[in-house]
Amino acid sequence: MSESPENNQQRRTFLGILLGGVAVILAGAFAWPIFRFLSPLEGGGEGSQVRVSKEQVKVGGAHFFDFQGRPAVLLQPSAGNFIALSAVCTHLGCIVKWVDDKGEFLCPCHGGRFSTEGTVLGGPPPKALETYIVNVEDTDLMVG
């Protein structure tokens, strides 16, 4: 039994549409992660701020929080003096830890040390921790 040329043409058209649809879906599946990687973070713009209660930041202590999708830390080295810093080490991007008894930050990856102002005290970090603006509003602190 031979098929008519018209049936063969309809079959080719159907398979072409089907393969084209699959190709579009696969292209979208591969392009979406690339698009999300290259697009800016949602809510991570310059104008975003984080509100932290003053009670959470003890004198001589540190309070870690998220700021614009990245770890940050608030310090109160002396009463009423607040400092906000990035908690990401400038060497390889590890999260720094607060060493209470020394009053400084330590990077657990390669031993980088930072002061309460974020300056490098020792180790391999090439530059200081990034600082953020802190505004005092009644019982809260506004970072950013």
- Share of helix, binned: 10-25%
CATH topology of the largest domain: Rieske Iron-sulfur Protein
Number of domains: 2
Task: Compute the average pLDDT.
Answer: 86
Q: Give the helix/strand class.
A: alpha+beta
Oligomer: single chain
Number of helices: 1
CATH superfamily of the largest domain: Rieske [2Fe-2S] iron-sulphur domain
Name the CATH architecture of the largest domain. 3-layer Sandwich
Shape: elongated
Runs in which pLDDT lies below 50 for 5 or more consecutive residues are none
SSE pattern: HEEEEEEEEEEE
What is the CATH class of the largest domain? Mainly Beta
Plain-language structure description:
The structure is a single chain. With 144 residues, the chain is α+β, with helices and mostly antiparallel strands. The chain folds into two domains: 1-39; 50-143, Rieske [2Fe-2S] iron-sulphur domain (Rieske Iron-sulfur Protein, 3-layer Sandwich), CATH 2.102.10. The chain contains one helix and eleven strands. The strands form three sheets. Strands 2-3-4-9 form a four-stranded antiparallel β-sheet, with no helix packed on it. A four-stranded antiparallel β-sheet has the order 5-6-7-8, with no helix packed on it. Strands 1-11-10 form a three-stranded antiparallel β-sheet, with no helix packed on it.
Question: Which terms would index this structure?
Answer:
11 strands; 4-stranded antiparallel beta sheet; alpha+beta; 2 domains; Rieske Iron-sulfur Protein; elongated; 144 residues
Quick rundown:
With 144 residues, the chain is of the alpha+beta class.
